[in-house]
Amino acid sequence: MNIKKIDVFMSSGRITLRSDESPEYLQKLASYVDQKIADLKAKNLSASVDERRRSLFIAMNLADDYFKLKDRYTAQDVENNELIKEKAELQAQIDKLQKANDDLADQIMNLKADYKHVQQLLDDFDNRTSKVVDELVDEKIIPLTAQDKRKVAN
Fold this sequence. Notes:
The protein has a domain at 1-47. The chain is 75% helix and 9% strand. It has helices spanning 23-42, 51-138, 146-153; strands at residues 4-10, 13-19. β1 (4-10) and β2 form a beta hairpin. The protein starts with a strand and ends with a helix. 1% of the residues are buried.
């Protein structure tokens, strides 16, 4: 930690702080507090109350801002956790669908292979049938006309 002296400016004047924060950040804080003081003055409370009460009002306003932001952060944290859970559930569904898709792709490949095999069997059968018909015709066992031969071939 590198603590250094840093001057910040408020409507009440220059204030020297000791911090390891950046000068820009500390000036931002000082401006925020200065605005809270200005808001209190705008409500005409500062003239009717002593310095201690004014400081208390400012501290209460700052605490109010803090707790509202803390509540918002907590609500967002809960929402983030719900989204993380939903994301995990969706990822599980995606994984399940991907597995089903892969299984279907495997089934398609198997069906294509089966189709090729059946097609080869049919082609072999057609060839054998054609040979048998040719032999029968050559031996004049079955007299076929050219038209009959075309029908048998088809």
